[in-house]
Specification:
single chain; 364 residues; alpha+beta; Aminopeptidase; 6-stranded mixed sheet; 10 helices; globular; LytR/CpsA/Psr_CW_biosynth
């Protein structure tokens, strides 16, 4: 009798477990759409965060002479805005590394908003630590991430909290692993000048593979301004692709592919916390602004003289976005000047029309 009771209890226990599992599957299946973000974060926490953090440790590279300044994350508190210098390095075989992309980024994690201020690589400025003026991208060639950071801080008059250096060559495998990325190519891109690498990128494709995406960043037969914009588009396209939920499980493999092609002084634990914040939030809204310049030659070398109005506006953008007290509706947008100019023009037009109508009425 006792054995029969035990068997009944075991069956009952198994039945309860099966029922719990079934209920869980029903909840996850029926409510999967509603809860997909928290579930993705939970899965990331349980299965991936440890692997990713360990892989990120290989990329952790504090700058020489600077103490690591981790931003502690307390769950009950909000994550404050921070700045980062993004360096897109294009280092090919048997060539010195150079930072083809220099972007001052401001990230506001709580609002899922990112500001990208691009500095064209030929911008003429003081290279901090060299006591000379030169192209801003030469700072990386002369003194690596530290000199690039110091030079950009001096140029923009704002501190850089972190740096992140990515070798575009290493992103080719990442793009392929993601199944390609979307790029807004509406006309065939052909690199054909005799002293340039030859390639053609066809327009109108739904996705572009790693080599095509890399060529997209390397195309150099239009303006430095357009090339800088393409680098912004390229980085945004990778982020958009990676943030799709079906790519979360690939993150450890993607980190492996990046390998030595990624360096940062942002602590791995902070990157993990930031990643979870991104997964839980809305898709990031990325706003870009490029400091224009006017070309000139000095001793036979081409440079860009930064437009003073653009430079001043870039500083205003950075100050506004890095201030934790700035509310979402108070954020200064990169197109604010154009909108203000349009409003002023429309206002002048309306005033002129009213004056013209009044004059006509008086004449009658």
């Amino acid at each position: 009798m006792k054995q029969r009771d035990k068997r009944v209890k075991k069956k009952g226990s198994r039945g309860k477990k099966a029922l719990i599992v079934l209920l869980a599957l029903v909840v996850l299946g029926a409510g999967g759409y509603l809860f997909r973000k928290p579930l993705a974060v939970m899965a990331f926490d349980l299965f991936l965060s440890g692997q990713v953090e360990k892989k990120l440790e290989k990329s952790y590279a504090p700058l020489e002479g600077e103490q690591a300044k981790p931003k502690p994350v307390v769950k009950e508190q909000k994550m404050e805005p921070f700045s980062a210098l993004l360096l897109g390095v294009d280092q090919r075989a048997n060539e010195p590394a150079r930072s083809d992309t220099m972007i001052y980024a401001v990230v506001r994690p709580e609002e899922s908003k990112v500001l990208l201020v691009s500095i064209p690589r030929d911008t003429y400025t003081e290279i901090v630590g060299r006591d000379k003026e030169d192209k801003i991208n030469h700072a990386y060639a002369f003194g690596g991430e530290k000199m690039a950071k110091d030079t950009v801080e001096n140029f923009l008059g704002s501190p850089v909290d972190y740096y992140a250096a990515i070798n575009f060559e290493g992103l080719r495998e990442v793009v392929d692993a993601l199944g390609g990325i979307e790029l807004p190519i509406t006309k065939d891109i052909v690199n054909k000048q005799k002293d340039h690498e030859k390639f053609t990128i066809k327009a109108g494709k739904p996705l572009y593979d790693g080599q095509e995406a890399l060529n997209y960043t390397r195309y150099r037969e239009d303006s430095d301004f357009n090339r800088t914009k393409r680098h912004q588009v390229f980085l945004s396209a990778i982020v958009d692709r990676m943030l799709k939920l079906d790519q979360v499980s690939k993150i450890p493999d993607l980190m492996d592919m990046l390998g030595d092609n990624f360096k940062t002084d942002m602590m791995p634990s902070y990157i993990i916390d930031l990643s979870k914040k991104v997964l839980l939030g809305d898709a990031p809204s990325i706003n870009g602004f490029t400091i224009m310049g006017e070309g000139f030659r000095k001793n036979g070398v081409y440079y860009d003289a930064a437009n003073e109005e653009d430079l001043e506006f870039a500083k205003q953008l950075i100050t506004n976005w890095t201030d934790p007290d700035t509310k979402t509706e108070q954020l200064l947008m990169p197109d604010a000047r154009e909108k203000a100019a349009d409003e002023a023009e429309n206002g002048t037009k309306e005033t002129n029309e009213k004056e013209s109508a009044g004059t006509s009425a008086q004449a009658k």
